[in-house]
Design brief:
globular, alpha/beta, binds glutathione, three-stranded parallel beta sheet, D-Maltodextrin-Binding Protein, domain 2, 342 residues
């Protein structure tokens, strides 16, 4: 068979790109987002500012749970974890900014909703953190549950699902409240501290993290109710299947590595594994990567550099007291599940 047919050409593209240590997006078919990313040489990611999930470190480098997912994406696309730019954007601004092409993906605690999928035109990768909406109230109110907040003034962040859920909650309980809608995060927190509002409501991930930023954390109580389901997932603009699948399988690689017990520490030992699925996953057997147009070492490099899902969780969220809960592997009673790597 001549080496000039499509198969031969694809193999040569694969070999060249693998030598460069990069994913081989063009080998199957690159979408517009990937084209743009490769031309730019970096992935643009919209993030928030919640400790544990995303925070700029003292060296100016972003750190956190979602940041590590962005680093994993950078490895999937470029073979290294530093071809990614993180930019803070308010919950109000970030979906329009994504739609306008200012970001390639949001890793900012965006909740998957049917309106965002159908009416607003976004696609979502796998849920990476199962969350729920909570309320943080001033202790001096003396309340222990959300239902006791009848007549309270509650701060909500504009553009969030929380803005809508809190109205549903009070409507369903027959109680009243006065919403104070605030876009800016510092102003949102300041409103609670100054007593302008009695309580604020947001994803529990956000409130637990932001509690650390309040001057007197002990003055506030996180009420026990979770008012909603907030499955937080990477968000991209709808209509770019190739980019969506790269996001999907990057997250699945983190989850699958944890399921197999493959960590940043022991991944090299797994290169000796006799398990054909692990050989395909780590690129010891290159057939799968070649078939889909990925650098055979993409998953290996992700795990080696960033760790598996559990390691990321341990590194950033366990120190804040987060237990795994729903964010545990399906095989350990949680909801995290990766489809087969075959
Ligand atoms: N999950 C909600 C809320 C998203 C949200 O507001 N996330 C937090 C981070 S978990 C945030 O960005 N807060 C503003 C900030 O961190 O500056 C939604 O999708 O509407």
């Amino acid at each position: 068979m001549s080496n000039n047919n499509i198969f031969g050409r694809t193999l040569r593209v694969l070999a060249t790109a693998a030598a460069l240590g990069a994913l081989v997006p063009g080998a199957v078919s690159a979408g517009p987002t990937l084209d743009r990313i490769q031309e730019r040489g970096a992935i643009k990611v919209g993030v928030g500012t919640t400790p544990g999930f995303f925070s700029p470190g003292s060296d100016g480098k972003w750190q956190g749970f979602f940041i590590d997912i962005g680093r994993a994406l950078s490895i999937a696309v470029f073979g290294s974890d530093d071809k990614v730019e993180f930019t803070n954007s308010s919950p109000q601004q970030r979906l329009p900014a994504l739609q306008a092409g200012e970001f390639d993906v949001l890793l900012s605690g965006v909740t998957v909703t049917i309106t965002r999928a159908f009416q607003l035109g976004f696609h979502f990768g796998p849920t990476v953190f199962y969350d729920g909406q909570a309320i943080l109230a001033r202790k001096e109110l003396g309340v222990g549950t959300a239902a006791e907040l009848d007549g309270a003034t509650i701060g909500v962040q504009s553009g969030t699902t929380g803005e809508l859920n809190i109205a549903d909650f009070f409507r369903s309980t027959g109680k009243s409240f006065t919403p104070v809608t605030i876009e800016d995060t510092s102003e949102f927190l300041a409103a609670l501290e100054s007593g302008r509002v009695d309580a604020i409501t947001q994803d529990s991930s956000d409130l637990v993290g932001k509690l650390q930023q309040l001057k007197q954390p002990d003055d506030y109580i996180l009420l026990p109710e979770r008012l909603s389901k907030e499955p937080l997932a990477p968000a991209i603009v709808a209509g770019d299947d190739r980019w969506l699948e790269i996001v999907n399988w990057t997250v699945y690689a983190l989850i699958q590595a944890e399921e197999w017990g493959i960590t940043s520490q022991n991944v090299d030992e797994f290169l000796e594994s006799d398990d054909p699925a692990i050989q395909r996953f780590l690129g010891v057997d290159t057939s799968l990567a070649e078939a889909i147009g990925f650098d055979p070492k993409w998953a290996y490099t992700i795990v080696k550099t960033v760790g598996n899902y559990g390691e990321i969780y341990e590194r950033h969220l366990a120190p804040l007291g987060w237990e795994r809960g729903y964010n545990q592997l399906w095989s350990k009673g949680g909801l995290l599940y990766a489809p087969p790597f075959r």
